[in-house]
Design a protein that fits this description.
Trna Endonuclease, Chain: A, domain 1, alpha/beta, globular
Length: 291
């Protein structure tokens, strides 16, 4: 999820107040700072940035954990680690929020870890937000620039089909006042996030019809870090796209096939195919043809 981590961290750094208010739903809130954090785990994991806030006169840290799919180990176990380490390191209350992006993710997350055994009780609570349950029109009407790229993943108004909803989201993002040099990158963020639930062809068509930034989005996908890195980086970038677009997990046999590929040029070609393929089966067929 490196690609998505980069998007979320950038948006949090740029619009911290939008994310803090969305998470806490509290009017008496002041953003004091954004803290980058690297949290050590058995498998390296970079937690998203912590937002230091003052809420009703008290300081706290707001922690966002973005998830595309249900995790293994389950989220309650992971959150115990994140929250515990955050409190240990910063000596401040941690207000943690898990945001599930895909419509089918997070349904069984209870929002807490509870241990009650032999007189020892441990309770760690966090908030669960499933974007498909959020009123997307409210986000569009509020105009919160940090949240608008996530709006295509939210619940559309009654009677609005998916393509019409994506078009509305693109139009609203297009109207956000910002330097034109930044607008293409902003719409790229929306396009990548939309790829979690929309086909790439649909995204490109709507972007092309409603904005002048289609070429920037295509260029971004085809010229990102894979062109600069090693085979290992190429493998990880390709797996990130497959996870974001098609929920291909690390344990999937397809991931093992990707890791066995040594040729960097082939990995680059597969990376472009993963972005453009209408479905996972189409990508598998392309992979089979290349072998």
């Amino acid at each position: 999820m490196a690609e998505f981590d980069t998007i979320s961290k950038h948006l949090i750094h740029t619009y911290p107040a939008d994310f803090a208010r969305f998470a806490l739903q509290h009017d008496d809130l002041e953003v004091l700072d954004v803290i980058d954090t690297e949290q050590p785990t058995v498998k390296a994991h970079r937690a998203d940035s912590l937002i230091r806030v003052r809420v009703a006169g008290d300081e706290a840290l707001v922690h966002h954990e973005f998830q595309t799919t249900d995790s293994d180990p389950p989220m309650p176990y992971r959150m115990v680690g994140y929250i515990g380490r955050g409190i240990q390191q910063h000596r401040l209350p941690i207000l943690s929020i898990v945001i599930y992006l895909r419509p089918d993710a997070g349904r069984t997350d209870p929002g807490y870890y509870l241990q009650e055994q032999h007189g020892f009780r441990i309770l760690v609570q966090y908030k669960v937000i499933r974007l498909i349950e959020i009123d997307g029109q409210h986000i569009l009407d509020a105009g919160s620039a940090g949240l608008l790229p996530f709006a295509p993943l939210m619940q559309p108004p009654a009677g609005v089909d998916d393509e019409a909803w994506l078009r509305q989201c693109v139009n609203r993002a297009q109207a956000v006042p910002m330097d034109e040099a930044l607008k293409a990158s902003y719409l790229v963020d929306l396009a990548i996030l939309s790829g979690l639930v929309y086909k790439s062809e649909t995204i490109r068509t709507i972007i092309a019809e409603e904005t002048m930034y289609e070429s920037s989005i295509v260029q971004y996908f085809t010229e990102k870090g894979i062109e600069q890195g090693s085979r290992e980086r190429a493998v990880e970038d390709l797996l990130d796209v497959l996870e974001i677009r098609f929920a291909v997990g690390a344990a999937d046999p397809l991931a093992a096939r990707i890791r066995s590929i040594e040729d960097l040029q082939r990995l680059k070609q597969l990376f472009r195919s993963a972005i453009q393929a209408p479905s996972l089966e189409d990508f598998r067929r392309l992979l089979d043809v290349d072998e």
